[in-house]
Amino acid sequence: MTDLTPIYRIAGLGILVAVLNIFLVQADRKEQAQMLSLAGVIIVLLWLVQMVAQLFENVEAVFRW
Amino acid sequence: MLWLPLVVGLAVVLTVFQAELRESHPAWAVVTAGAFVAAVGLTLMPRFADIIEVFGDMARVANVGSVYVTPVLKAIAAAYITSFGVVLSREAGEEAMASAVELVGKIVILLMAVPLVQAIFVSLLGLLDF
Question: By residue range, what is the domain housing residue B52?
Fold first, then answer.
């Protein structure tokens, strides 16, 4: 009924990136950790942009009368 | 109607996470909030479509022309889209961006209302025999 798959997907990627981040920080590679975090945010942002585009299309379709 | 407790529960859970994320990873906090709002909006749009359909039927029965109904619906849609952007930027602490988006939304809605104002003005002038 409610399609919450994107939320779970984002949560999964977030947890993965957080764990890898901890590993990299422990291994004293702060630069790579930061880059990894940034890459994760960009990937999720791409998903988000697609979702928002879909939402706006839906809004446009619903309110066109 | 099962999505109501689902959405509220998810909102509570995400709020707890957000409190932590905003401290450590602000970008993730914004992305999570945006994804949640978009997901809820996408879920609710079909119900919204049903309501709009009923409104349209009512307007047709009451013989109200689409000239008067369409701007109202368009204004609602513009307000919805604008509030999406405004809430996200305000939540991220970007007050300047939020007010700019707000201004754009206001101007767009005003542009949609121009034909109606014009119609009122014309009929007013007709009443006054200009």
Answer: 36-127
- Tally of domains in chain B: 1
Using a CB-CB distance cutoff of 8 angstroms, which residues of chain B are in contact with residue A33?
none
Q: What percent of chain B has pLDDT over 70?
A: 99
- Shortest CA gap B124–chain A (Å): 28
Angle between helices A30-63 and B26-61 (to 10 degrees): 0
- B28 at interface of A, judged by CB pairs closer than 8 A: yes
Yes or no: say if A4 and B36 are a contact pair by the CB < 8 Å rule: no
Question: Does residue B31 lie in a domain region?
Answer: no
- State which residue of chain A sits closest to B5, comparing Cα positions: A2
Taking CB atoms and an 8 Å cutoff, what residues of chain A touch B69?
65
CA–CA dist A7, A14 (Å, integer): 10
- Contact of B38 with A59, CB cutoff 8 Å: no
- The answer to whether B29 and A41 have CB atoms below 8 angstroms apart is no
Q: Model confidence over A6-49: pLDDT tens digits?
A: 888 888 998 999 899 999 999 988 889 889 989 999 999 999 99
Asked if B38's CB is within 8 angstroms of A14's CB, the reply is: no
Any domain includes B88: yes
Distance from C-alpha of B27 to C-alpha of A36, rounded to nearest angstrom: 13
Is residue B30 in a domain?
no
- Distance between CA atoms of residues B31 and A42, nearest Å: 10
